[in-house]
Design goal:
The complex is a heterodimer of chains A (297) and B (256). With 297 residues, chain A is an all-alpha fold. Chain A is 75% helix and 0% strand. Chain A has eleven helices and no strands. Chain B is of the alpha/beta class and 256 residues long. The chains are: A mainly alpha (297), B alpha/beta (256).
């Protein structure tokens, strides 16, 4: 081997001489960690532009479409900012509402994750159980949650517990489905490898199925995290007892025709959804970003 | 089924793997293999060549226990067999080192031992310096090397290869062949190799078996006379070409 013909020959030569040195990166090795960098402007500009257009339309509707006496239907952006976000009293009311709804979303999501993951693991171990349970989880998903909200209040009262229960119901399904899909996604070769070395179910689950499922689990978590915020607000909206959450505030502002506050509360709840979505996106990148070939942002 | 090597048995005469009148019929009625018998002994590297879909891989699955034969018997000690898959089957979430340690983990090897043995195997296949890389940053050939290293850590007496280098380019394949031979002479495993490349078969093996189209039968056996260690230049030797030609001829006959 006098000529270095291929990347592998380089590695081979290295091994032959058992030389110590920097690894020789082969030409055909995919680039490691080198991402094509787009300009910041190319990423930031489009959404900013669209945002400007939306604000422009908003002003148009507020001032050109609506008469002054009907303007409360859609107050212009700067009024929302002044009367909603910058108004100390309204703001502290909304922040404590977000805190209350946030707690509900947190506990609901936590329970949904635990329950959903456990259910998915059990279903992955038993085809029979999967067949038995799956139709019901679809039913749960397709059932309009509003239809059973009164029932939930009837059973569990109109306070914290019921709100958490609504949140669990609404955010459970994506976790079950994605986790189950993930657990069954490890390829046959890996399973064969473990079979050859007589690995048991638990080892299989721990060494291949669970890690292989992580990207799908995170995809499910991000969906469910957003849903848990919705669940918390819906629950609060219907069960007007206990802590005042965002849902009750929305109802109150609508009743009082406080358009600015209503819009502010809508933005804040959207912000909460985005925040948890991003939190799980970040966690996803931390945990599987290094190895997953496809990772959605 | 699997026989345990009794202390009184003459080690030299006991084959590492023995197929006796193996046949295989799948539940859908397909007859994959018909009456295949051969042995693989210590110091032997046996390659089975045959057309696609002739049941070559099925043979390995039977030997490894992934499939149960429907006729005949297959004798070997399955407590420690090496199996190199068609794909590298690396766990993408583990680094090269983590992947190489996997089988030792399954067999309860202690952490310090794992580390030392993994390092030895990684250096053996020429991946030193890539221990912390994830599979996605390796080329196809390097992934196969990592896969080989993983298999070698348990020092299996029998190593089975299921068309492992089919997906890599020709030049890489030649280097991997040379590497495999180096490992064969160093690690002293018995080899059972499946491929549809004649030159790969001749270059690697002590014996080449030609398998017919489905249902697979062994239609010809060739002893390969070239001594080890074999140099890459062997591929241009007239005797190498002549033997390859003979096997190619037999393979064409088997195809019809």
């Amino acid at each position: 081997m006098s000529t270095t013909l291929s990347p592998d020959s380089a590695a081979l030569a290295m091994a032959d001489q058992s030389s110590v040195g920097d690894p020789v990166l082969p030409d055909d090795a995919p680039p490691t960690g080198v991402k094509r960098r787009e300009g910041v402007a190319a990423i930031v500009l489009p959404p900013v532009l669209l945002g400007a257009i939306i604000v422009g339309l908003w002003y148009t509707v507020s001032y050109a479409v609506l008469d002054a006496d009907r303007r409360f239907l859609l107050e212009p952006p700067h009024r929302v900012w002044q009367k909603g976000f910058m108004n100390g009293e309204a703001r502290s009311e909304m922040f404590s509402g977000m805190w209350s709804s946030g707690k509900v979303a947190f506990w609901g999501l936590l329970i949904a994750i635990t329950l959903g993951a456990a259910l998915a693991v059990l279903m992955s171990q038993s085809k029979l159980l999967e067949r038995a349970v799956f139709p019901y989880s679809v039913v749960l998903q397709s059932m309009p949650i509003l239809a059973i909200v009164p029932l939930i209040g009837f059973w569990f009262g109109y306070g914290f517990n019921s709100r958490v229960f609504v949140t669990v119901l609404i955010s459970l399904f994506p976790i079950v489905v994605n986790t189950l899909f993930g657990l069954t996604s490890a390829d046959q070769g890996m399973h064969d490898l473990l079979t050859l070395h007589s690995a048991g179910r638990l080892t299989r689950l721990r060494k291949i199925q669970f890690p292989a499922a992580l990207p799908a689990i995170f995809a499910g978590l991000r969906i469910s995290a957003g849903l848990s915020v919705i669940g918390a607000i819906v629950g609060d909206f219907f069960f007007g007892q206990g802590d005042v959450g965002i849902g009750q505030l929305l109802k109150r502002y609508a009743a009082r025709l406080e358009g600015e506050n209503l819009l502010t509360a809508v933005f804040l709840s959207a912000g909460m959804g985005v925040a948890v979505f991003m939190l799980f996106g970040w966690l996803n990148n931390k945990m599987v970003g290094k190895w997953a070939t496809v990772s959605r942002r | 089924m699997a026989f345990s090597a009794s202390p009184t048995a003459d080690a030299a005469s006991t084959p590492t793997l023995s197929f006796r009148n193996i046949s295989m019929q799948f539940p859908d009625g397909t007859r994959a293999i018909s009456d295949v018998s051969f042995d693989v002994g210590k110091g032997e590297f046996v390659t089975v060549v045959g057309p696609s879909g002739c049941g070559k891989s099925t043979l390995l699955k039977i030997a490894s226990g992934l499939l149960k034969e429907t006729g005949g018997e297959c004798l070997l000690d399955r407590s420690n067999i090496g199996y190199v898959f068609q794909d590298a089957t690396l766990l993408p979430w583990r680094t090269v080192r983590g992947n190489v340690e996997l089988l030792m983990e399954l067999h309860g090897v202690s952490k310090p031992e794992r580390t030392a043995e993994a390092q030895r195997a990684i250096e053996l296949v020429g991946l030193k310096g890539f221990e912390k890389h994830h599979p996605k940053s390796l080329s196809g050939g390097m992934k196969m090397r990592a896969s080989l290293a993983r298999t070698l850590t348990l020092k299996p007496p029998l190593l089975m290869f299921d068309e492992p280098f089919g997906a890599v380019d020709e030049i890489t394949r030649e280097y991997l062949n040379e590497e495999t031979l180096k490992l064969f002479t160093q690690e002293r495993f018995a080899g059972l190799f499946i491929t549809h490349s004649i030159s790969e078969a001749v270059f690697l093996s002590t014996r080449v078996l030609v398998m017919s189209a489905r249902p697979g039968r062994i239609v010809a056996t060739y002893d390969v006379p070239f001594a080890y260690p074999r140099q890459p230049e062997l591929r241009f030797d007239p005797a190498f070409a002549a033997l390859s030609g003979e096997i190619s001829h037999a393979l064409r006959g088997a195809h019809v």
